[in-house]
């Protein structure tokens, strides 16, 4: 039974993914962010999910200052350009040609 619940929890977000190259509104939320490198986004997300604020606040500020990661502004338009097998999506904002990896729950 637990395996079924975990499987459903992993699959449902993927079913809700927007179609590729579809423009979406960025969801609001304090933890809405994206990074140019998939591994960096995954690492910062892991710190947040594990409530490891010490490691998050040690690493995140330099990544945001350098532009490797950005925070979302509410209502900013984004285009989903790619998704991966782990359920992450790559987005491009209408006013920025740079592509960033994020969690699909962070976009509507």
Structural features:
alpha+beta; 37% helix; 108 residues; 6 strands
What would you report as the Rg, rounded to the nearest angstrom? 14 Å
Stretches with pLDDT under 50, minimum 5 residues:
1-24
Shape label: globular
> Biggest sheet, strands in spatial order?
1-4-5-6
Number of domains: 1
Topology, number of strands: 6
Strand content: 15-25%
Note the gap between the termini. 30 Å
Helix-strand makeup class = alpha+beta
What does the main sheet amount to? Answer: 4 strands, antiparallel
Q: Roughly what percent helix?
A: 25-40%
Number of helices: 3
Walk me through what this model shows.
This protein is α+β, with helices and mostly antiparallel strands. It has one domain. Helices cover 37% and strands 23% of the residues. The protein has 3 helices and 6 strands; from the N terminus they run αββααββββ. Strand 5 and strand 6 form a beta hairpin. The longest helix is centred in the N-terminal third of the chain and has 14 residues, at 2-15. The protein is globular and about 35 Å long. The relative contact order is 0.26. Mean pLDDT is 75; it is low at 1-24.
Protein topology:
Elements: H1 2-15, E1 23-25, E2 33-35, H2 38-49, H3 53-66, E3 69-71, E4 77-83, E5 89-93, E6 99-102
Antiparallel strand pairs: 1-4, 2-3, 4-5, 5-6
């Amino acid at each position: 039974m637990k395996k079924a619940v975990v499987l459903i929890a992993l699959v449902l977000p993927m079913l809700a993914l927007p179609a590729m190259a579809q423009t979406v509104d960025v969801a609001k939320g304090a933890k809405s962010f994206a990074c140019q490198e998939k591994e960096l986004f995954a690492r910062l997300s892991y710190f947040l999910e594990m409530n490891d604020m010490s490691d998050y606040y040690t690493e995140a500020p330099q990544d945001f200052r350098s532009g490797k990661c950005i925070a979302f502004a509410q209502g900013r338009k984004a285009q989903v350009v790619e998704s991966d097998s782990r359920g992450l999506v790559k987005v491009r904002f209408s006013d920025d040609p740079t592509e960033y990896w994020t969690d699909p729950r962070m976009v509507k």
